[in-house]
Amino acid sequence: MSDSNEAGQVTIISATESFLAKSLISKFQGNDIKTVFVHAKIKDIEDVLEDTELFILYMSEGMDEIADTLVYLKDVVSDRDIGLILIGELDQYEFVKKIIPEQSILECYMRPLDIDLLMKNVNTYLEKNTGENRKKTVMIVDDDLTYMWTIREWLGGIYHIRMANNGVQAISQLAKNKVDLVLLDYEMPIANGPQVASMLKNDSDTGNIPVMFLTSHGDKESVLSVVNLEPADYLLKTIDKDGLIAKLEAFFEKR
């Protein structure tokens, strides 16, 4: 995850070597906006995903040929709450909307492109969503899918949310994508919460990620057994929405 004091990156995606798409990079970089160009391939997008705060998809003919990439992009902007802007023709926009819902699209600019308007709106978006204003990213790790989705629903409007339904999946995700906090179920099969927390703590890449345990047991023995792991907190699963939000707000304010 990018440092909270740095503006996020704009990633321009195009299926073709478009002159306009490439010229936007020079325009943005000339205005001190970190910008990269990638082809409309899932692997290329994955390579820049960690630093991206805003996608700009330059649409062209043959959008049906990159339908799998559009499906991937739909999931990414939804799961990570990343902005998405489209540039192209009306028929191309209508096709993309069949795959990516309108609520996931910030704006669609028709050609000929008003670059000054685009620049203004991109700057506004980055000012509101990056640097000190960047939403924190919280990972929820729990084998109880109903509970995990409930927590996601509670926190989704406030934080970027990532989810994993077991410890192995969580460790795999965190090796590639850093988060600001992990809400970790204490009791899980295969690798329980304390074991996962220990593995995270002992890895140089994840050792500084704070962990809050979620548990059904508030007994003294359970709490003391993880003291050496230095968890940020130990929360009972009976906590309600307002209580959980207050806990997280207080934690991030303190940090």
Describe the structure.
Helix 6 (145-155) links the parallel strand 6 (137-141) and strand 7. The protein is elongated and about 65 Å long. 41% of the residues lie in helices and 20% in strands. Mean pLDDT is 88; it is low at 1-5. It has helices spanning 19-30, 42-48, 67-80, 90-97, 115-129, 145-155, 167-176, 193-201, 220-224, 241-254, and strands at residues 9-14, 35-39, 52-58, 83-88, 107-110, 137-141, 160-164, 181-185, 211-215, 233-236. The longest helix has 15 residues, at 115-129. The two termini are 16 Å apart. With 255 residues, the chain is an alpha/beta fold. The strands form 2 sheets. Strands 2-1-3-4-5 form a 5-stranded parallel β-sheet, with helices on both faces.
